[in-house]
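[job 0417] fold request received: Copper amine oxidase N-terminal domain-containing protein
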Amino acid sequence: MHKWKLFSMKRLSVVLLAAVVVIIAGCQAVSGIDLNRVLLNSLKVQTMESKSSISFQLLRNETADIEDDFSDESDELLSLLSNMTLQVDEAKQQDSEHMSMKGALKFDDLSIGYSLIVDGDTALMTIEGASRPFLFDMTGEDIMDSYLYGTEVEDLGPDTAAASWSDEPSLMDFGYKVLDQVGGYFIDKMPNPKDLSVDPLVTEKVNGESLTLAHLNVKLDAVQAWGWVQSYLDALTSDREGLRTMMKGVVDLVLADPVLRETIALDENGEVYEPTAEEIDTTVDEMIDELTQLNQSMAELAKEDEFSDIINKNSSVKADVYVDAKLDIRKLSLEASYKPDPSMMDEEEMPFEGFVLRFNQERWNVNGDVVADKVSDKQKQSAISLDTLESQQGYQTLRLFNPTSDAYSLLRNKLHIGKQTAVWSVWDDDSPVIVTASGVTIIPLRDAATQFGLNLSVERDGIHLFDPATNASLKVNKGSKKAIVNGKAVNWSYPVTVVDGITYVPARDFAKAFGASVKWYTYGDNIKYSFTIEREVG
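[job 0417] inference complete; emitting C-alpha cells
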C-alpha cells in the first residue's frame, strides 16, 4: 500500500482525534462568545507575558494502616506531594526558542527560588542555594527527528529522511491548519456541557490592571464528563459522510501546501500522490471503528459494579476563563479533583484519598513585542552542564548547594539523593554475593567500589581504595585478614579471597570501613536471595 496511506493518513487521523481532546471545553457559541475561536487563539499564541501557579495536593488518608508497607522515605515523599506548588512570578515568551521565567518551587515548609532562560540552543537554570547555574544543550535531536509515531524517517519516502523535522512545518503548525480547516465540524457535533455559563461583562484585574472581560464558567463532575464524552462519540460515529467530507478537506489542505505536499505526499518516485476515494473511505471507516469501540468500552465499563467507586460526583473539573474583546484568554483558573469512593480506598489500604490539581494564570501583552532574558557568556562559563550532573554521584550534586538552603534540605533530607545502595543477588552469573562455609558474607571488591564511587588502584603493597565522599581510605592484600582502615591496622573476619578471578572481601567489614550498613533479603524459610550495602553521604 502507498506510503501516503500508511503514514500520512494515520498521522492526520491522530491530529484530528487530538483536536477533539484539545477542544473539550469548546462547543457552540454561548452568549455571543465564539468558544471555538477562543481556543484556536489560545493555541496560536506566539508571544506573551504571564504569571501563574500550578499546585498539586495529595489528599492523605490519615486512618490508613500503612506502617508495614511504607518506609519512612516513602512517607516523606507522600508528605511532599501533599502540598506542592510551582509558582511563576514572571514569564516572558518571545518565541518558540526564546523564553524566560522566574519564581519558586514550594512545599509545606520549603521554598526554593529559581530562574530559567531558554536562549536558542542554550537553556540556563539557576536555583536558590546552588553555587553554580545549570546549563542545558537544546540542540539535541528530538525524538520526532528519528521516529514519527513509530515510523522511521528513512522509511517515509525520498528526501524525507534527509530533511530534518526542524526544517519542516511542525506538527503543531499542521494542527493549527487542520483546526482552521475542519474545526467547525467538530464544534457543530460537540454538545455543550450542562453547567456552562457566560457573563459577557465583568471587571477583573490582570497584572494589577482592571480590565473588562467576558467570564466563562464550566463545571463537570466525573459522571457528567463520562456521559458527555459518550454523547460526543455517538454524534461523531453517526455522521460518516461528515467525517469523510472533513477528511477530504484535510487531504486537500496537504496537497495545497507546497511544504506539506513535499513532506508527506510524495510517492517512491518523488511525485505527488493523491489518496484515492477508496483509501479515504477506508481511513474514515477505521476512525469510526476506533471511536465506536471506545464508546462501547465506556458503556461496558459503566455497567461494572466498581464503576461508581471510580467515577463519581466526588471527582470534578472546574474552569473559570476570562476573555478580552479579541477573544484572547487573559486570565484562567482550573481545578481538577479526583476522589474515588472512600470504601474502595480503605479496602485497598491506600495512603491517600485522592488528589487536587489547580492551575491559575494571568496573561498580558499577548502576541505583542516581548523580549526574553538572555544567557550571558559569563553565565555559560560558570555553569555546570547536564552531562556532568548525570555522571556525578548524588553527594557530588549535593555539594553544589549551601547546606543551609531549602534546596539542600529537599535533596538530602527529603529526596535522599546522597543515598548509595549496592545490590547483589545470589543468582548473579558474573559476580554473585557468596556466603562462605563459615557463614561470612563476601562481596566482589571492584564491583562494590564502582557502585559506591570509590577510587581503586592496585599497588605493589596491596589494593588501595579511597572514598571521595568521606575521605576514608582502605588498603587490603589478597589472602590476608589484615586491613589498613584510615591508617589504622584492623583484623577482618575473613581473608581477601579470589573466586573465579574476582577479588572478594568480607561484606560487613567493608561496609564498616566506609560507614555503611548491610542487609539480607530472604523468602520462604529464611532463604537468602539478595544482599545490600547502603549508606547516605552529603
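[job 0417] notes: The chain is about 35% helix and 35% strand. The longest strand covers residues 48-60.
[job 0417] exit 0
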